[in-house]
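quick one before i forget lol
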Amino acid sequence: MRKLLPRRRLLIEGPGAWLAAGGVALSLLMVLALLALIAGRGLAHFWPPDIEAVTLVSGERFAGQPVREQGLPGQASGSERLYRTGNRDLDGDQWRWVEVNAIDTRTTPEDLVIIERRRWGPFIGRLLRLEGPEAQWTASDGAALWRELEERMARVSQLRHERDALHNHRLEPLAEHVDDSAMSPSEEDELREIKARILALQDAMQRDHVVLESLSGQRLELSLEALIEVKRPNAMSLLAKLASWGEGVWRFLSEGPRAANTAGGVWPAIFGTVMMVLLMSVLVTPFGVLAAVYLNEVAPQGRLTRLVRIGVRNLAGVPSIVYGVFGLGVFVYGIGGSLDSLFFADELPSPTFGTGGLLWASLTLALLTLPVVIVATEEGLARIPDSQREGALALGATRSEALRRVVLPMAVPAMLTGVILAIARAAGEVAPLMLVGVAKLASQVPVDDEFPFIHLERKFMHLGYHIFDAGFHGGDVQAAMPLVYATALLLVLVIVVLNLTAILLRHTIRARHVVQAHR
């Protein structure tokens, strides 16, 4: 042993230690650089950049927000700049590449506006006037025009909220649970009243109009109901831009997607991801723990048990898409189709459980992460000294009592480690979800105030699939890329929060166990 000490000291203090430390430092720097890139490009999307009024050498004028600049393809000198010009309904596209040498002047007039619309994307130009049934305000009115516009936009937002609440909470439930041929007079009156109120709200939302003009001279008249937000970034102070940035981040977190997932928020995807991971954890933990306890504490340690362990470890390396195919065939078509035949025959051929949904996706991911939980729990059980078991048995406890009161409490941190690893893998999986329940766009989250409150048969949105769909299936790549970065950052944060929750729980349980052991 004394002869080996200098060699061990050389390994710890010599070049090997520096190489190991350098490898760890390089790995951390690469992770931090990747997170910084994702955060920078994702969070910068919500900052309101100035709008430039560009005049070309040819005399053409347009307005747009500069996005980036790059060299001319195939040329050693010169560069071109990408502008977000909006006005897709007027110009046919909302992006424009312009050679820098072809630009004569660039200015940032304070009267230029960018308007987010429900259709056709943003409009960039000037606001000429606001028209209402009782009066109108023009650009010459200055602050009065913008004050009146803000008040009327808030009114339209309130009316829209009331209309959506009537449609979702009164009209749809009444239409689903009442047959038109067997409708009572009171139900007919209620249905007629709801429809009349919705139409009245729709008319009230379309009462006010704005008249817009692009820098090329094209005019457009829109009702306030078609607008989402109106901004004047060139007239904003730094504090106003910070407030607008925060509002944009909040809307991204709290609203649903629109414009084929190239605009709007990701709230349904956040909810679906967290809900699926929590349900998967509830399903996989008891089965993984029971399997590990059986293999380590109950089963005879022979050749068959060793083969089972080898099989469990090999299952951890099976490609995730294979689990997706298995879930589709066994869970969706097999079990789900049988449930439809037994309990939902009246709904056929429209499937209830015989199609992808939250339950089947959670079960598939539970099956995928089951080997991880089994291996982590079994390793934790193997590290518990045999003296703990023998001491419990010597004090008169049965094997079952020793297992429940001594062994399992000491193995809880290892169980939670397995759950942490399962969460980290399951939250980012996309391939199996494409087969067993994830949707490009889900009209509602799978939880509401109607019994049974959690609707496991519904399809759901997922952050990972949202990234895949927006980045590769969207029609407007330029508009989708900032949202892809922002959603990727959000997915990382969701995984970190879920893992930190499990880590804190593990630390609390471990500390409590240590205190009880010292007592």
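fyi The chain has a mean pLDDT of 85.
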